[in-house]
Design goal:
Length: 439
């Protein structure tokens, strides 16, 4: 006991208090910088910034898998893109699997948009365009006949086509509803939109999680300071130059790992040692997060406008146009009314069918154009927002964590490695300023 007390007294006498006390301050500041710069690495820049190296793309295929995961490497570039925006497409895929798919089938989702209201809007927008549509098709397909028709006859045709419009539009919206599972793929739509607009994924984190992210940065100082206390003791006892850099690597790694854990773990409330309540910071506000997430999805990702674009101009657009044109032909025949037989004889069966098919083809594009009306789409967005928010709030906490984290989890090693490098740098900097304690 006397020997231990004597050693402790001697240790206190020989201790360089300035160097000793500066170590926790150093590790605290380094911890703050690690988490601050780690957040920058997570979210910035939104687009890849760097240089393309000739031949590097071919060489990158031979590099270790972890190196290939660094943004830009597989594309032959040396630089950086934020981990979250770089994995935007993957997050979109997971978001669909975890949350959006739980909205139901595309058909059920389409019914939530109230097709009857969509049809009424289409009729209201399309009705003034009927004369122009008829004029364009008839002028193109049978200019002489159309030119020679008296104006009252043309007006009667316009009126008859307009009178058939609700039935035609009803056919369009019904056909879309029947075949929506084949025409609309929400997963492709979401992934493609996230890939083209990675800033949306950053917004999802930033809009509801900025408070927690700022707290994570401040905790970086606390973690670093606390971990620096045993490091200072070890350094003052061992008097070895490598202690600070090597332990700095461990502290930097642990600081970043604790920061990520603080945000995402545990997904459900628990008590540490049966006393201290712990719960992932993001998970504490899942309901608020769900509202933010739903608003972004409804306003920017799954909008009626984008559904119209996807149905008409997406990978299955040709199928949509063909299906709707086929469905519209009987309605166009009805629009000809009692004069159908006479007109068919006058212009010839082949020409009559060509006119009918041209009207159908033109009508497909024009009847779906109101889908792309931003104002109407914005009104429908509220239905989508409520639906997405409700389902996201109902997600089990573990699924919610996976939806938010899985896209970046495999890249977190980059953050930890960055923390380790900064920790080592902090150790070398302290050595350069204060030297080895007792050395």
């Amino acid at each position: 006991m006397d020997a231990a007390q004597e050693w402790f007294t001697q240790w206190l006498e020989e201790l360089n208090w300035v160097a000793f006390l500066s170590i926790p301050v150093f590790t605290g500041v380094i911890g703050w910088l690690i988490n601050w710069s780690g957040l920058w690495m997570l979210f910035s820049p939104v687009r890849f910034h760097g240089v393309t190296v000739p031949g590097f793309r071919e060489i990158s295929a031979l590099l270790p898998r972890k190196i290939q995961e660094v943004p830009g490497v597989l594309q032959g570039g040396i630089g950086w893109q934020g981990i979250v925006p770089a994995r935007a497409a993957k997050m979109g895929s997971i978001a669909v699997d975890k949350a959006i798919s739980k909205l139901g089938t595309p058909a059920e989702f389409y019914q939530q948009l109230e097709p009857d209201q969509i049809a009424e809007h289409i009729v209201r927008v399309f009705r003034p365009e009927v004369p122009q549509l008829v004029d364009e098709v008839m002028t193109r397909e049978h200019p002489r006949l159309w030119r020679d028709l008296p104006r009252p006859v043309k007006e009667a045709i316009y009126e008859r086509v307009a009178a058939q419009l609700p039935g035609v539009v009803g056919t369009v919206t019904d056909e879309i509803g029947i075949h929506i599972d084949q025409l609309l793929d929400p997963k492709i739509m979401v992934i493609d939109h996230f890939r083209k607009n990675p800033e949306l994924v950053v917004r999802i984190f930033r809009d509801f999680g900025q408070r927690e992210l700022d707290l994570m940065v401040r905790f970086g100082f606390v973690f670093g300071f606390l971990l620096g206390i045993p490091l200072a003791i070890a350094d003052s006892i061992l008097h070895l130059w490598w202690v600070l850099p090597v332990m700095g690597v461990a502290i930097g790694w642990i600081t970043n790992a604790l920061g990520m854990w603080l945000i995402f773990e545990p997904p459900e409330p628990k008590r540490l040692f049966g006393v201290i309540p712990v719960h992932g910071l993001f998970l504490r506000r899942q309901d608020e997060a769900a509202e933010v997430y739903a608003r972004i999805i409804a306003e920017d990702v799954i909008t009626l406008e984008r559904i119209g674009d996807f149905i008409l101009d997406g990978p299955r657009g040709d199928r949509t146009r063909q299906m709707l044109a086929t469905a519209l032909r009987p309605a166009i025949d009805r629009a000809a009314g009692p004069a159908r037989a006479a007109v068919r004889v006058a212009v010839g069966p082949a020409r009559f069918d060509t006119i009918r098919d041209s009207v159908a083809a033109e009508a497909v594009g024009r009847t779906l154009t109101p889908f792309k009306d931003p104002e109407f789409s914005a009104r429908q967005a509220e239905k989508i927002r409520v639906l997405v928010a409700t389902r996201t709030k109902e997600l089990p906490p573990r699924d919610f964590v996976e939806m938010m984290r899985a896209a970046i989890k495999e890249d977190e090693w980059m953050l930890y490695a960055h923390g380790a490098i900064m920790g080592a740098a902090g150790g070398f900097l302290h050595l350069a300023i204060f030297g080895v304690q007792g050395g």
